[in-house]
Amino acid sequence: MTSLYEDLSNEAPSNVPVRRITFTVNGEKKIAEVEPRLLLAHLLRQGLRLTGTHTGCDTTNCGACTVLVDGKAVKSCTMLAVQADGHAVTTVEGLATASELHPLQEGFKEEHGLQCGFCTPGMMMAAKALLDENPDPTEEDVRWALSGNLCRCTGYQNIVKSVLWAAEKLRSQS
Amino acid sequence: MYPSRFRYEAPRSLAEAIELLVSGGEESKVLAGGQSLVPLMKLRFAAPELIVDINNLPGLDYHHADPDGTIRVGALCRHATLERSALLAAQQPTMAAAAPLIADPIVRNRGTLVGSLCHADPQGDWASVVTALGGYVVAEGPGGRRTIPITEFVTGPFQNVLGHDEIAVEAVIPAPKGTPAGGYLKLERRVGDFATAGVAVALETSGGLVTRAGIALTGVGGSTIEAIEAEQALVGRPLTTETIEQAAGLTAEAARPKTDHRGSAEFKRHIVRTFVVRILSRVDGTAERAA
To answer: How far apart are CA B10 and CA B142, in angstroms?
Structure first.
């Protein structure tokens, strides 16, 4: 069980109100005791050591912290961890299998979809939500779906190409 | 960043949620989509002692039309649902135009229309849309339900008329008597930024004449602005180049823009005028097209 409250406070843990939550992350059942004010991004990064989810702006703008909750893209810096109770969370770590990259990851590699890589996990998760809903998106669809994710390096051209590459590969596999 | 400490409850029924708000006192706050409240709490602009998370309440994620055409949007209906709504696409052009322009696609997955109205940000898009449509909010508290017109619901920037023990459960758009027409246009520097200027137009037409007109503005004053003179100038008249230009001019006069990093006051007024012309010129049945 993950307990994540002691690093938010100097108070004795016994004084801190905690709630026990049950949820899944990348298909694995997790039980955590969390302070209600803990954000989902912090539970993932510090509590579960899933540091693929990045916190960028911390103000709901940049989308670097995007994860899927019940298949929908959400900004995990703007959702309380307690709200994940009973829900299924997918992070960027949930994309690849032990032996194979996910087509989105391959696409970002093939089309040079990243430079510094900080925005990449959020881009991939927003793209995953898009491709799950629309397997054959136009370039415009991709740009629209990624319009809540900021990249300061690439100018977005190759990110869009990467997602379209992944879409094609996923279609060819199905 | 993380919020200051609060007590958290996630009730399973509306009655239980209201009881919690009653017992929680003035420093209680309802959490729905959280896309404005959570950032405010992280920045410590808001520090509620009790959060009542209504996301587990059953039956509030709807949007539907009554047989007479009244549109009802429940407190847990997300922007993304409205963006994909066949109902709005068919029946309510102003809302259908606004939904895809709210924040960004990821925020739209969680944020709610009713929450946006409650948040009462003067820059909020839905407040303009619901004002133009003459809509209202239904709130439930320990004393029962009450209906509050949107113009009375918002009392100031980030302030609404709700008591601490009341929950806004539904936004309502009255049934149109004529054919609904209109749209929403917003200029923003990038997706997710506050509006440089936004214009909501909600008309009803009948027999070639405008029978009802609602025009409201986002981001060009310290509050949502209803362009009442422009509305009155349209009612009872056909949409022609002349009436469209007149309404656009009166709307621009109603705007109270300030020069800031998003643009000069003059520029924003120009955008308002242009948006009114664009929306009205696209209304079906317009005899003459304006520029």
So the answer is: 18
